[in-house]
């Protein structure tokens, strides 16, 4: 996928969903960060690296990315994911860090038993999915900033889920 246009996201996710249902909206979301783990990782990295100005920045970046990867692995997801919404299901597919097409389905949430919570976080939206039937939970973050390529898809997913939102 060369772009993150809403119609491209829907086409890619529809190919994965197949005849199981019609994809009404698809968007690219990131896994919510675990700030406590990032703080601990930063402290450990700060102790382990030489005390030079250049290394501090490199260490901080590596620490954040490593913590994100570990957080995703612990939850059985990827750092970046595509949400595809059908009438009955919220599908969660893996996405490569940069560009690419969605991969395997990581999770699925029944719309009938899933509570959706959306919170404003600057120009982003934190989305929490909690399925009361399966007990599964997933915290994501997406953007609504119009100049961001994936924002149209994220806004479409948020609109599709709006009837499920508990604000």
Secondary structure topology:
Elements: H1 6-17, E1 25-31, H2 35-48, H3 53-75, E2 80-85, E3 89-95, E4 105-110, E5 114-121, E6 124-131, E7 137-143, H4 151-161
Antiparallel strand pairs: 1-2, 1-7, 2-3, 3-4, 5-6, 6-7
Description:
The chain is of the alpha+beta class. The protein has two domains: 114 residues, PH-domain like (Roll); 40 residues. Helix content is 36%, strand content 29%. The protein has a seven-stranded antiparallel β-sheet with strand order 4-3-2-1-7-6-5. β5 and β6 form a beta hairpin. α2 packs across α3. The longest helix has 23 residues. About 14% of the residues have low confidence.
Write a short abstract of this structure:
The protein is α+β, with helices and mostly antiparallel strands. The chain has helices spanning 6-17, 35-48, 53-75, 151-161, and strands at residues 25-31, 80-85, 89-95, 105-110, 114-121, 124-131, 137-143. Residues 34-49 and 55-62 have low confidence and may be disordered.
